[in-house]
């Protein structure tokens, strides 16, 4: 290049050296222009965000010391509220206390101690959730906090009571037999009942209330007994025994000294184990006649079948007899 009669030459000396410089001491970093790929759980978060927007939950702002996840977890998981909010000493104490009360509930299932443990379980759960919500309720008047606690307690009852009923109907059933509690594990339905099974059945569907001209009355309730005969079996009574298809067995209380019964289809022969109270004189024949009729149990009367545990925690369960 020529400028005012002087020649100048410009040579790009550093161009190639910069382009091919070694990068041994440079740390690789992920570019902000290429974010990581979405994980498999991303649709779940997207769905949750959509639901939150549709329900206008995104307009609700919790205090800084509260989160939506913590709120839901403390409501669903017993003791979680104490763990998230409480001091270090009390974090595991809440879970430990709930576990011990749960153990006491099952150990005392059917007794007053078990019912008390059940109430304390609900109390710990409600207390933990209200404790976690303390930043939200700190500036509210006492009346509002009491109403909030009452509503949480009602919500807890709506969960705990059906849960206990489900356990009793499908898993474990406490039966009160002569002052003792017999814990029974639930088994199959009525279609699988056979001789030797224990059956819980209702008397309210028996279709009989009065016998011997009103001298014998049977109250509604539930019975628990051993299946002695099934459909088509013949039960014959005698003075010192009763026979099922010719197989002799000792007489049970209030069994008649004569007669026979053929068990109809979809019925079972279960000798009732009832408490009897009387006013005046009622003959043994009238009582035996009523018991024979009650012993024929239909399929619609059956509430559940099961087998009693030999031991329940530390106590030996009473020996069940028909």
What do we call the CATH topology of the largest domain?
Umud Fragment, subunit A
* Strand element count: 17
Residue share in β-strands: 15-25%
The second-level CATH architecture of the largest domain is Ribbon
Helicity, in percent? 25-40%
Total helical elements? 9
- How far the N terminus sits from the C terminus, by CA atoms, comes to 122 Å
Brief descriptors of the model:
Umud Fragment, subunit A, seven-stranded antiparallel sheet, four-stranded antiparallel sheet, alpha+beta, 322 residues, 17 strands
Structure description:
The protein is an alpha+beta fold and 322 residues long. It folds into two domains: 56-170, no CATH class; 188-274 and 284-316, Umud Fragment, subunit A. 37% of the residues lie in helices and 21% in strands. The strands form five sheets. Strands 3-4-15-5-8-13-14 form a seven-stranded antiparallel β-sheet.
Strand and helix layout:
Elements: E1 2-3, E2 6-7, H1 15-19, H2 42-54, H3 68-76, H4 80-85, H5 88-107, H6 112-132, H7 134-137, H8 142-170, E3 172-177, E4 180-186, E5 198-202, E6 210-211, E7 216-217, E8 222-229, E9 234-237, E10 241-244, E11 247-250, E12 259-262, E13 267-270, H9 284-295, E14 296-298, E15 302-308, E16 311-312, E17 315-316
Antiparallel strand pairs: 1-2, 3-4, 4-15, 5-8, 5-15, 6-7, 8-13, 9-10, 9-12, 10-11, 13-14, 16-17
């Amino acid at each position: 290049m020529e400028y005012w009669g002087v020649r100048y030459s410009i040579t790009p000396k550093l161009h190639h050296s910069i382009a091919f410089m070694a990068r041994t001491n440079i740390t690789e970093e992920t570019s902000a222009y290429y974010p990581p790929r979405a994980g498999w759980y991303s649709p779940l978060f997207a769905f949750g965000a959509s639901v939150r927007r549709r329900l206008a939950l995104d307009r609700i702002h919790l205090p800084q010391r509260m989160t939506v996840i913590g709120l839901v977890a403390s409501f669903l998981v017993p003791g979680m509220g104490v763990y998230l909010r409480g001091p270090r000493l009390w974090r595991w104490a809440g879970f430990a206390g709930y576990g011990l009360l749960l153990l006491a509930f099952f150990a005392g299932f059917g007794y007053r101690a078990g019912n008390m443990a059940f109430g304390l379980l609900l109390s710990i759960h409600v207390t933990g959730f209200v404790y976690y919500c303390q930043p939200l309720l700190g500036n509210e008047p006492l009346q509002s906090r009491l109403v909030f606690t009452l509503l949480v307690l009602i919500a807890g009852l709506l969960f705990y009571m059906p849960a206990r009923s489900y356990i009793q109907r499908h898993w474990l059933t406490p039966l009160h037999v002569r002052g003792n509690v017999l814990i029974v594990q639930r088994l199959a339905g009525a279609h699988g009942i056979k001789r030797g099974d224990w059956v819980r059945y209702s008397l309210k569907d028996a279709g009989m209330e009065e016998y011997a001209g009103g001298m014998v009355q049977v109250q509604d309730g539930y019975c628990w007994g051993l299946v002695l005969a099934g459909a088509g079996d013949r039960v014959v009574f005698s003075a010192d025994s009763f026979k099922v298809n010719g197989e002799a067995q000792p007489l049970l209380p209030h069994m008649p000294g004569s007669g026979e019964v053929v068990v109809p289809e979809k019925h079972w022969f279960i000798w009732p184990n009832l408490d009897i109270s009387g006013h005046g004189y009622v003959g043994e024949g009238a009582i035996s006649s009523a018991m024979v009729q009650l012993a024929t149990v239909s399929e619609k009367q059956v509430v559940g079948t099961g087998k009693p545990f030999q031991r329940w925690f530390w106590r030996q369960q009473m020996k069940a007899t028909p």
